[in-house]
Amino acid sequence: MTQSHRMFARTIGIDYSGAETAEASLKGLRVYETFGDSEACEVLPPPGPKKYWTRRGLAEWLKQELDGARPTIVVIDHAFSFPMRYFERHGLEPDWPTFLDDFCRHWPTDQPHTYVDFVRHGNVGNGGARTGERRWRRLTEEATGSAKSVFHFDVQGSVAKSTHAGIPWLKHIRAARPELHFWPFDGWTPAAGTSVIAETYPRLWSSAYSKGDRTSDQHDAYAIARWLQEADQRGEIINALTAPEPEPIAATGLVEGWILGASWPPQKTKSAPRKKRTASGNKTTEPGFINRNLQEVVTHTGLPGNDHNQVTYILRCQSCEHRYGANGSDIFQRRCPVCGAGRPGLPIS
């Protein structure tokens, strides 16, 4: 694809770090970029006392660089939002700007001298009022087959600290550059000539490139920038930016966010076999179907639901045996209203 037909003139890959504070020089925070057909090169922080990037310094650099002069895609390896269960537990509107404001009030990890663990342990902010369960994963994390929950702290491969440290800086950048397209929250398809910020999971791409003498953090940032460049060269990046199907998955992705490069249905992994959770293939409304949250379809009631052209089905929670009504279109993602922080059920009689 010629330069004139590409979506982006520049690609930036960022391997993020949630270590220490926003002012700390972090060896694990790495940035690579490409221009046109040029080789992906590491971007070092501006000259000064810090050898490595700081989270604050990186945010300020992005504000300056994303000035609209050239269409750029920036992809970062931390989550931009949380699972729907989080919104339901805390009574939040399913709206990303609302989530950003609320999160930053409770998790002020962008403040000076503030570690993520300070907020986790109640020394700063009010993080205890905005928590989730480590077993909660977003649909996009399930789509990759191996990405961990944003609440799964203190394990290898976790993005929990990076996510809790990075989200406030997204709000800073969005406020400074409102013309930027934060994907997919501002829509699945960016307008031509727009600069885009998105999230990814480097494991999707890092094995495709030789590591050479790069560290793991450097290589992840390199792989992100290079994959974006090559996908744009081939004219395929628009496919990665396309909404997943079916529509309810895409609608959830507009709230939970989506990992660039993830596809639906979920990727199969080579982990130990799991107990089969459905009794009826992919037909989510058939009696016996069990969704990913262990909610089983009991029967069709014939009663109207509260969504367009929907009828009510009776679901049974396999954990606590509670029975309740749900729209047929909601079955695939429904959670128990009693033990799973789900929405109240519909009437079933």
Q: How are the elements arranged and paired?
A:
Layout: E1 10-15, E2 30-35, E3 41-42, H1 55-65, E4 72-76, H2 84-89, H3 96-106, H4 116-120, H5 139-144, H6 160-176, E5 181-182, E6 196-199, H7 216-233, H8 237-240, H9 247-256, E7 295-304, E8 311-317, E9 323-327
Parallel strand pairs: 1-4, 4-6, 5-6
Antiparallel strand pairs: 1-2, 2-3, 7-8, 8-9
Helix pairs in contact: 1-6, 3-6
Report what the structure shows.
With 349 residues, this protein is of the alpha/beta class. It folds into 2 domains: 269 residues, no CATH class; 78 residues, no CATH class. The chain contains 9 helices and 9 strands. It has a 6-stranded mixed β-sheet. It has a 3-stranded antiparallel β-sheet with strand order 7-8-9, with no helix packed on it. Helix 3 crosses helix 6. The chain starts with 9 loop residues before the first strand and ends in a 22-residue tail after the last strand.
